[in-house]
Design a protein that fits this description.
The complex is a heterodimer of chains A (159) and B (133). Chain A has 159 residues and is mainly alpha-helical. Chain A has five helices and three strands, in the order αααβαββα. Chain A has a three-stranded antiparallel beta sheet, covered by helices on one side. The chains are: A mainly alpha (159), B mainly alpha (133).
């Protein structure tokens, strides 16, 4: 991906020099042409076309924002009840992700959504131990959001 | 009502929403039973309410001062990056120093896993000592 961005920047500069016109606008048009060239040549590069990766990042972010709002409303609803009726606990969750970046990203996203905190990850990086505020209601939603996060993360990190 | 006062009103609503969320999470901090549940309340305050307050500040500078402040986005980014790490470390160290869960808790998978882990380590240690001898 870094190589593709570098090639794209190079094409942008090349276009600017060919125009003999040192301006941001001609560099930008060269950059757009570089994007098109890379899109045409996408089957010959070893990694995925980097705009697709960018799109996957945007998708992951929008899923995250949605989960953040949904679970926040749930937790606030629990807090403002006259009598707090929660059944907290720690449950285990298996993950199919591998590698440091993927595991860290998933732990970060699960911890950022309110109502669930990753307490511990097993030494072989396979099982998350998650503390949830209300197990009967939240464990299903955590499981669902975990599956969605995993799919989105795989789209970002895997070629 | 002119356009600029309408924008001002909507920005005020966004910032007010952020402060209300912060207030609710501090209520949660007082009312919830144990350290783990309180960490939930604080993690929420530092994500959603900071998001709303900084977003309102950003819109204020953009529309009323005509100044695009990228620094505010950096602030949101770093809060999002650091707040879960600190929450995780606080909960983890609390568990490792054997702070008990609230009595309402219904499930604790981590305890079994940790017991098994320490048993395995003990076993490895024993076999190592045996092999040295």
């Amino acid at each position: 991906m870094a190589l593709q961005v570098l090639i794209n920047l190079f094409i942008g500069f090349l276009w600017m020099f060919f125009q003999d016109n040192w301006s941001v606008l001609s560099f930008f048009s060269g950059y757009l042409i570089g994007l098109f060239v890379l899109f045409v040549l996408r089957r010959f590069t070893s990694t995925k076309y980097y705009l697709f990766t960018l799109q996957a990042v945007v998708q992951l972010f929008s899923i995250f924002i949605y989960e953040l709002f949904a679970s926040s409303i749930l937790v606030i609803w629990k807090i403002i009840q006259p009598k707090i009726n929660i059944r907290p606990g720690i449950f285990s969750l298996e993950t199919s992700l591998q590698g440091d970046i993927e595991i860290t990203l998933l732990a970060l996203l699960i911890t950022l959504t309110p109502g669930s905190v990753v307490m511990e990850i097993s030494p072989d990086n396979k099982v998350f131990y998650i503390h949830a505020m209300d197990i009967p209601e939240l464990s299903d939603s955590v499981l669902r959001s975990k599956t969605r996060f995993e799919e989105a993360i795989k789209k970002v990190t895997r070629p | 009502m002119s356009g600029s006062s309408l924008i001002e009103l909507s920005i005020a609503v966004i910032i007010l929403l952020g402060t209300i969320l912060g207030f609710l999470s501090s209520i949660g901090f007082i009312r919830l039973p144990d350290v783990y549940n309180r960490a939930h309340a604080l993690a929420k305050s530092s994500t959603l309410s900071v998001l709303f307050v900084l977003l309102g500040t950003f819109l204020f500078f953009l529309f009323l001062e005509g100044y695009f402040s990228i620094k505010i986005f950096l602030g949101i980014f770093f809060v999002f990056l650091t707040s879960p790490v600190s929450t995780h470390v606080i909960c983890r160290s609390a568990y490792h120093s054997k702070v008990e869960l609230a009595k309402e808790s219904i499930q604790d998978d981590l305890q079994e896993a940790m017991e098994e882990y320490t048993r395995k380590q003990q076993h490895n240690k024993n076999t190592e000592e045996a092999s040295i001898i």
